[in-house]
Amino acid sequence: MDAPPATTRIADPAITSPPRRRRAHRRTTFVLVHAGLLAVAVFAMASHEMGATVHSLAGLALVGAIAWHVRSQRGWVTSAARRRLAHPERTLVVYNVVLMGTFATVTLSGFPVWIGDDRGAMLRVHDVSSLAFVSMVFGHLVLNRHRLAARLRRRGRSASGQP
Ligand code: HEM
Ligand code: HEM
Fold first, then answer.
1. Which terminus of the chain faces fewer neighbouring Cβ atoms within 10 Å, N or C?
2. Residues 6 or more apart whose Cβ sits within 8 Å of residue 72
3. Atom of ligand 2 nearest to the CA of 41
4. Is any atom of ligand 1 closer than 6 Å to the C-beta of 134?
């Protein structure tokens, strides 16, 4: 008997995996990705005891992780940019803009401290904004608690509309 055509022999997970397993896989990915993001944020804060280079590289790794995170939420970000204060999740819109601004302040003030060894005003700005940022990340998780709970129950869709 002839072998089936190559296209039907390649297992397509979208067709072959049972939906329950696929949803469990998505949930595990969601948990791992967000736990990783949180861990990078906590490490970026804690690493300031490890010297300027290690800490600055950890800070830059966080910049990359957050850029990826915000990109993965681009459906929500686009609708927020379009509707602004008319968005049904107005609190989240305002909160996320302030969170982003705080993070930009931490990152931008980090460079003069790192490269210019500015231990005066810039270090103070960096210090205060970094504390505000880390506290605000926990607020961000609290504001997202329903979304998080739905994702952990495997029924929710992401803010970007992705399952
Ligand atoms: C969200 C990410 C970050 C957090 C939470 C954070 C937090 C902190 C904290 C709490 C300090 C100690 C301030 C003090 O000694 O009073 C510090 C120091 C410092 N940060 Fe950051 N930082 C972050 C990102 C960055 C980035 C992106 C850079 C570089 C581009 C950077 C460069 C530095 C430098 C050079 C110091 C001085 C370290 C030393 O004591 O020699 N940080 N940071
Ligand atoms: C500058 C920092 C950050 C920005 C600008 C940002 C932005 C966003 C945006 C725009 C959304 C979609 C709207 C919403 O639900 O609020 C979102 C969702 C979310 N963010 Fe962040 N975020 C940041 C940091 C973090 C960090 C450090 C974590 C830690 C795990 C995190 C966890 C989450 C979670 C769990 C969701 C819901 C995801 C989903 O339902 O798919 N975010 N974030």
1. N
2. 158, 160, 162
3. 27
4. yes
pTM of the model: 0.87
The pair phi, psi for residue 152, each rounded to 5°, is: -75, -25
The two structure tokens encoding residue 120 = 């005066």
The pLDDT tens digits for 6-58 are: 545 555 655 555 688 888 898 999 999 999 999 999 999 999 999 999 999 99
Ligand 1 mutation target, pool 42, 48, 100, 123, most atoms within 8 A of CB: 48
CB atoms under 10 Å from CB of 17, counted, come to: 14
H helices of 18-154, in order, are 19-46, 52-72, 74-83, 90-114, 121-143, 145-152
